[in-house]
């Protein structure tokens, strides 16, 4: 299983609250209902930041963390080049994120203990 983590950052003309509202109420249902999402994405998780943190913790300037699961890198590429992503999802992402400031991490899990 390939997991893609995206450190998502909002557009400079938006507040964090505006970003969160769009991400939660507009983007999540739009993303979830696309045929290519259902075909390629195995899991979609929005990690919404809270104000809770241990004293002294250093936080980056991130508005949210996205986790997408794919069967493999080929599934990721197929989704990224699909009509649903190119014509619907990506234009919506640009309505509330700054793609030049989002960071992508491609990972595989290696369980140490459960």
UniProtKB/TrEMBL annotation:
SUPFAM superfamilies: Dimeric alpha+beta barrel. Residues 12-99 form the EthD domain. InterPro entries: Dimeric_a/b-barrel, EthD_dom. Gene3D superfamilies: 3.30.70.100. NCBIfam families: EthD family reductase. This is EthD domain-containing protein. It comes from Paraburkholderia hiiakae.
